[in-house]
Amino acid sequence: MPIVKVIEVIASSEKGIDDAVRLAVEEASKTVRNIDSVYVQDIKAHVRDGKVTTFGCVCKISFRLD
User: Fold this and answer.
1) Which among 1, 7, 19, 49 counts the fewest CB atoms within 10 Å?
2) Listing from the earlier edge strand, what are the strands of the sheet with 35-48?
């Protein structure tokens, strides 16, 4: 029976939420193997002068341990 571990990652992007999630997985995959899924726990946007400048997300990334 495989054991699954979950880590929390915070990522941001100027392009959008989709890009922020992809960046979170991309960065995590540099040091973590066997990533199975990502759960977006929270979404936020930073605003400056009445305009959204950056999108951010808190992601829980699940991966199987060897």
Assistant:
1) 1
2) 4-13, 51-64, 35-48
Q: Three-state SS for 31?
A: coil
Instruction: Decide: 28 and 61 in contact? Cβ < 8 Å.
Output: yes
Domains and their CATH numbers in the chain: 4-64 (3.30.1660.10)
**Alpha-carbon distance values, 2 to 6, 25, 35, 56, 63 (Å):** 13, 21, 13, 31, 10
Say if pTM beats, i.e. exceeds, 0.85: yes
Those residues of the chain that have pLDDT short of 70 are none
